[in-house]
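In the laboratory, one determines a bound structure by crystallizing the protein with its ligand and collecting diffraction data. In a computational setting the workflow is compressed into a single prediction: the sequence and the ligand go in, and a structural description comes out. We illustrate the idea with adenosine-5'-diphosphate.
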Amino acid sequence: MTDAAIAITALHKSFGAFVALNDVNLSIPAGQRRAIIGPNGAGKSTLLNVLNGQLPCQEGSIHLFGRDVTKATPHELARLGIGRTFQISSTFRHLSVEENVRVAHLARVRRVFSPFPGHLRALKDAVAASLDDSGLSQFARVRVSDLSHGDRKKLELAMALATRPRVLLLDEPTAGMGLAERQELMDLVVRHVARDNLTMIFVEHDIEAVFRHADLITVMAAGTVFAEGTPAEISTNPEVQRIYLGSHAP
Ligand code: ADP
Ligand code: MG
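The predicted complex, in structure-token form:
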């Protein structure tokens, strides 16, 4: 059996006396597109924050392609292939789109980067390719503070992908976007994921997008995994409908 991309065992996370994650167990095979859904406060963002090392893991273990990364720092996890976007925008607002993407590429290559012409050219090409891939070429010189919300979300994706992740974590990638923009962004995400054979874990409130793009759905509530199943199974699970989907279930 091959190792899961991500294997989480008996994960606990507390903030003071408040238990945000309680005995979370998840196994996500390589190449899978896994959605995490659940009501506000369920622990979805906390889970992603632990997975990328931003929050320390208090109890339990995390393995990345079979390697124990329970104690790894965000920097180590990024180097080992965890890439992510945030629920709250994480771009440099006063830099241009191109400069932001360059920063993300430099974060990846800085250990081998040198200011020799060959490296500079490779960096320039990589930045241009990222902009092109994400449909942002025409905004290369635009300051991030002048971008539309949707284009900023595209930029965040381009920056996460510039780190060349093997596992892409997305926290509400389409939050605050209109329907057409949401579909465009999710199509962009899944195109990259398929092309680069990435494992994808996404937190998303847009249930249509979840059902369309997830191979498997994990439902969280109050810090625990409440249910797990295919879109067909989750959409017909009465308990899930009751706590989360309400009348939106197909
Ligand atoms: P979700 O993303 O599912 O909406 P979160 O993971 O952001 O939920 O939060 C889960 C719970 O943990 C919430 O009740 C939230 O208030 C709490 N929480 C999250 N981060 C912190 C923190 N840094 N300090 C204290 N409580 C937190
Ligand atoms: Mg959240």
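The beta strands are 6-15, 18-28, 33-37, 59-64, 67-68, 82-85, 167-171, 199-203, 216-221, 224-229. Keep in mind that any predicted model is a hypothesis to be tested, not a measurement.
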